[in-house]
Amino acid sequence: MSKNIMITGASSGIGRAVSMEFAARGYGLGLAARRLDALESLRDEILQRHPDTRIAIRPLDVTEYAKVPVTLREIIDELEGLDIVFANAGIGLGGKIGKGEFEAAKRTIETNVLGAMATVEAATEYFRERGRGHVVATSSVAAFRGLPGNGAYSASKAALSVWMEALRAELYRHPIDVTVLHPGYIDTPINDMLTNRPFLISLERGARIIADRIEGKARNPAVPRWPWAWLARVLAIAPTRFISRMG
Ligand SMILES: NC(=O)c1ccc[n+]([C@@H]2O[C@H](COP(=O)([O-])OP(=O)(O)OC[C@H]3O[C@@H](n4cnc5c(N)ncnc54)[C@H](OP(=O)(O)O)[C@@H]3O)[C@@H](O)[C@H]2O)c1
């Protein structure tokens, strides 16, 4: 029997492309995001290419924390089970600290940390009941160093990575896998306004790598591995005078 994956942030960018990729690999899909119209058109596109795909869509704002487990259970009922939950929804708002960007920074923390935690919390509860499963979250290479002009985003991804590390330790003797993705620059609307996107890869390539890493149950993959696995180490120890030029 084919596997089912639920993906948050499925209406755009990585979530959308990974949904297409998993449909091509024969998975059933539970797709969630705030924009229902975008999910509907994604569903239509997937069904045109892969008519047998089972798809459940739900509008969901992950910062409406109490709604997250309700939506997850609705998708479980509709698909008759989930094997993988991918907490991918995220935003990159904020700016330099002390420049009036607090509300944007707060929204980034609420979405990327608390929204992802609400998703993973609900998924883990279900997988503990079921006795198996796989929890996946999208962090970022920005988690490895507080980047100037991106403090809230870096902090949000660092918090998410560390929280997921604790989850992995809690699940050590359980048959529940934990994957934390650390992408570099993948071409999506979250970064297409930036003038400098070093080592940018296409969305299609990023989605293929991410699907491979999820299927391979990788623990903390950089996406793509080269150069980001190496750069993550460099970022963590680079002198502040070098990091300060990145803002
Ligand atoms: N692209 C990169 O280079 C890169 C690198 C590292 C990490 N990431 C991470 O990858 C993830 C996906 O980003 P992306 O690059 O694909 O950007 P994107 O194209 O802007 O997609 C973001 C997705 O998150 C959803 N979302 C945002 N806020 C939400 C909320 N409150 N509730 C539910 N869904 C919400 C959006 O859907 P709605 O607006 O319809 O809700 C959208 O589907 C994010 O966590 C991002 O931080 C991206």
Short structural summary:
With 247 residues, the protein is α/β, with parallel strands linked by helices. It has helices at 13-24, 36-49, 67-79, 102-130, 151-170, 203-215, 225-237, 240-243, and strands spanning 4-8, 28-33, 55-59, 84-87, 133-138, 176-183, 222-223.
Instruction: Provide the CATH superfamily.
Output: NAD(P)-binding Rossmann-like Domain
Number of domains: 1
Question: What is the arithmetic mean of pLDDT?
Answer: 97
Q: Helix tally? A: 8
* CATH architecture identity: 3-Layer(aba) Sandwich
CATH class, named: Alpha Beta
What is the string of helix and strand elements? EHEHEHEHEHEHEHH
Low-confidence stretches: none
Shape category: globular
> Per CATH, what is the topology?
Rossmann fold
Description:
This protein has 247 residues and is an alpha/beta fold. The protein has a single domain (4-246), classed as NAD(P)-binding Rossmann-like Domain (Rossmann fold, 3-Layer(aba) Sandwich). 48% of the residues lie in helices and 15% in strands. It has 8 helices and 7 strands. It has helices spanning 13-24, 36-49, 67-79, 102-130, 151-170, 203-215, 225-237, 240-243; strands at residues 4-8, 28-33, 55-59, 84-87, 133-138, 176-183, 222-223. Strands 3-2-1-4-5-6-7 form a 7-stranded parallel β-sheet, with helices on both faces. Strand 6 (176-183), helix 6 and strand 7 (222-223) form a beta-alpha-beta unit. Helix 1 packs across helix 6 and helix 4 (102-130) packs parallel to helix 5. The longest helix is centred in the middle third of the chain and has 29 residues, at 102-130. The protein binds NADP nicotinamide-adenine-dinucleotide phosphate. Residues 8-9, 11-15, 33-35, 38, 60-63, 88-92, 111, 115, 138, 140, 183, 185-186, 188-191 line the site of NADP nicotinamide-adenine-dinucleotide phosphate. NADP nicotinamide-adenine-dinucleotide phosphate is lined by residues 8-9, 11-15, 33-35, 38, 60-63, 88-92, 111, 115, 138, 140, 183, 185-186, 188-191.
